[in-house]
Design goal:
Largest sheet: 6 strands, antiparallel
Helix content: 25-40%
Strand content: 25-35%
Shape: globular
Structural class: alpha+beta
Radius of gyration: 15 Å
Oligomer: single chain
Distance between the termini: 45 Å
CATH class: Alpha Beta
CATH topology: Alpha-Beta Plaits
């Protein structure tokens, strides 16, 4: 079996949110088997006025290349109603982004790694810190938990109740 690389993927949606998160999780589980899944967070839209998003991070192990993963994810987005011509900052049914691919740094198959959103957006960093708190960012070499503890931009997000395949993924804090 070829080497399996750990890959972390962000999932976001602000249209029919639960439906599209479940569609993404179903597809990823079908492709990769067991998934590491962070809690699901609701967050305000960033960069435009829009409905709140649901965001989470999923960890998988794969022997697929970055380019193969990117093509699969673009196809899944399209199958779930994402319009490739839509503006970057706009509502979306499904957004899947490769955050990290092992320890890779730089541009691979047109994808910049690690993805800059890790350090810039609470809706990426917080779920990543929940999922793999001790894993270190490939560039700054700080753990995701340490990065989250030092994060301060005022972006708001909060955990939400979310179930998938009979499993509680996350719960809102009362």
């Amino acid at each position: 079996m070829p080497n399996q690389v750990p890959v972390y993927i962000s999932i976001g949606t602000n249209i029919d949110r639960e439906r599209y998160v479940r569609a993404a999780l179903d597809a990823l589980a079908g492709w990769f088997g067991e998934l590491g899944i962070s809690p699901v967070y609701e967050s305000e839209a960033v960069g435009f006025d829009g409905s709140p998003f649901l965001n989470l991070v999923v960890g998988v192990k794969t022997s697929l290349s970055v380019g193969e993963l990117s093509r699969q994810f673009k196809q899944l987005e399209a199958e779930n109603g994402r319009r490739p011509e839509a503006p970057k900052f706009s509502a979306r049914t499904l957004d899947l982004d490769i955050l990290t691919y092992g320890e890779a740094v730089g541009r691979m198959d047109g994808v910049e790694l690690p993805r800059s959103e890790i350090l810039n957006n609470a809706f990426v960093l917080r779920p990543l810190a929940d999922l793999v708190p001790t894993v270190k960012h490939p560039v700054c070499r700080k753990s995701y938990l340490e990065l989250w503890q030092n994060y301060n931009t005022g972006q708001k997000l909060w955990p939400v109740d979310f179930n998938w395949q009979g499993r509680i993924i996350s719960q809102a804090i009362c």
